[in-house]
Amino acid sequence: MPLRDINSVCCITLGCFKNHVDSERIAGVLKDSGYEIVATLHEADACVINTCGFLKDAVEENIAVILDMAEARANGTIASLVVFGCLVNRYGAEILAQNIPEVDAWIRCEDYTALLCALPRKPVPIASIPVKRVPIPNTAAHIRYLKVSEGCSNHCSYCMIPNIRGNARSLSVSFLVEEAQSLVREGARELCLVGQDLAAYGADLGDGTDLVGLIDALESSLPHDVWLRLLYLQPMGVERRLLERVASGRQVLPYLDIPIQHASEKLLASMNRHISREALAEIFVTARRIRPDFALRTTCMVGYPGEDRQDFDGLLRFLDEIRFDRMGAFVFSPEEGSLAATMPQQVTQKTKKRRLERLMSHQEAISAERQSLFLGKTLDVLIDAVSEGEYVEGRSFREAPDVDGVIEIETTSGCLRPGDRIRATVIETYEHDLRAKEATQ
Q1: Which residue of 100, 194, 205, 431 is 20 to 30 Å from 370, comparing CA positions?
Q2: Positive or negative, the Cα torsion across 245, 247, 252, 258?
């Protein structure tokens, strides 16, 4: 039992945007039980770490943070330390607790009842645990994430998500509309829809619910000035109907984040990704045929077992063919428990690193060329940051928060705030960012 009363809690979020949503739910549960949510450890009586267990590198980073907080627990800076989330799901509380005794509780994803029981205040009754989320201090109020589902049913050979979070479980349209309306009332001007696979939304419900229907419901129920952005759609479920709906949307932005991972038929089959190179290319060709300025982002993996020079060169040719606006890339990690970790023909770290550098350099030139197409064009821009000078920073439909570039805008308006929208004309382009000038009315 802690030696002092616990009235305030600091939440530390590690990992993806989906984890950020979970942290807001943690904060909502704690606040409803009477705890104050604070921004820093020095204000807190307790700390809850919401963890990521996706990749080995992430696990190592998470353990380092936990050890730092364990030291704070040992020296009395905080009175209680709770570790929550994916790391616990993947490795189990018993295994983790053996080496870090300063942690008071190890709690699995979504187990908010156990979270409340781990802290000394009498928990609220189970039935009253709220679905309402509470923003984490010092995060942008005008950008919020709407998590539409939990888990994933794709079972790619390299990925541990189904083991960690289970198969896909979609939230209902009515729940998501209500939550989106709540986020907008709190100041959200951009809602980013997230999930392990947005394209599969609703497939598990068995009632005809799908992502197009969710977009329809959100657009009909939210103010017209709220942006909707779709992040992380596995290509196996992206159909023309969805592309047409996104391209013609009133609020949904013509931006899609579709991770291809690779373009080699051999490797895609080995990855258990049920799509051919031809079908993969057709998604993006169709999107640009429907709307030439469609913003397309992808993610690629290099160094998957069996990847040879021909496979890698084929990936470069695919990038040349499609002309993605943005690309993230990473090297294959042989995750313990995954099928791919046991496969023969593992690629050396040296080769992985060399291929990653070459891939990123190759895409940089493509990104610069795509950026240059917008020189002289006027865009709607959502303001993210305001400086004391004559510049503000924002994003258009082409830039997702935190993962893409930004637009630096010259402005004479002295009263702009984060969340405001302005029109800006692009005057300079770079590989990732743009420079613009506020358009005259």
Answers
A1: 194
A2: positive
| pTM metric for this prediction | 0.93
Where are any strands of DSSP class E within 87-239? 105-107, 143-147, 149-150, 169-170, 190-194, 227-230
How far lies 195's CA from each of 18, 90, 116, 240, in Å? 7, 19, 26, 20
Give the SS3 label for residue 372. helix
Task: Measure the CA angle with vertex 221, ends 247 and 183; round to 5°.
Answer: 95
The pLDDT tens digits of the residues spanning 126-166 come to 554 556 899 999 899 999 999 999 999 999 999 999 999 99
- Please report which residue ranges of 248-348 form alpha helices under DSSP H: 265-270, 277-290, 309-322
For residues 141 and 395, what is the distance between their CA atoms, to the nearest angstrom? 15
What is the phi/psi pair of residue 385, to 5°? -150, 145
Q: Which residues contact 25 (CB under 8 A, 6 or more apart)?
A: 112, 131, 133
pLDDT tens column, 245-261: 999 999 999 999 999 99
At 192, is the secondary structure helix, strand, or coil? strand
What is the pLDDT, as a whole number, of residue 1? 44
Cβ atoms 50, 13 nearer than 8 A: yes
H helix intervals, 291-339? 309-322
Is residue 371's pLDDT more than 90? yes
With tokens 């994916």, the residue in question is 86
For residues 118 and 45, the answer to whether their CB atoms sit within 8 Å is: no
Looking up tokens 């704070």, which residue turns up?
72
Residue with tokens 């942690």: 103
Contact indicator for 283, 168 with CB cutoff of 8 Å: no
- Residue environment code for 335-358, b if the CB has 16+ CB neighbours within 10 A, otherwise e: beebbbbeeeebbeeebbeebbee
